Structure of Rod shape-determining protein MreD:
Amino acid sequence: MSRLRDKPWVLPVSLVVALLLGLLPLPALLQPLRPYWLALVLAYWVIETPDRVGLGIAFASGVIADLLYGGVLGEQALRLVILTFILQRFRARIRFFPMSQQILAIGGLLFNDRIVSAVVHIVVGEPTLPWSYWWAPLLGMALWPLVFVLLDALRFGRRGR
């Protein structure tokens, strides 16, 4: 391929940054709008480098997120494994979608993630998130092009000379 070699440090650093962004304190008014950073970053890596990122990385990242965020143990892991499985299944199509269609696909995955989260909370008897939290996937959709371009730029560096 004509693409430059990617930098191997970008994957683990981007996952750590996504985990840290999930820990950032937000005012109560903005808390429901917090995008699922880990899902966005993981989606990028599953789409772009399926040979390096799969269900195992998704599960491990989810368990670490569960421990950091202090929710139901295994919830984040389940959510990320489901997201990764769907992305792996449709990766060949999604990868070549124009950005506008990728945004819709990522939005559908983020809404599906909210549904999985709601089901897990109902099953284990935890209180479900308020309706205002259903707005976060829309913000995730809006941030997808930025996340994609930023991670692509970090991964490959400067392309033109």
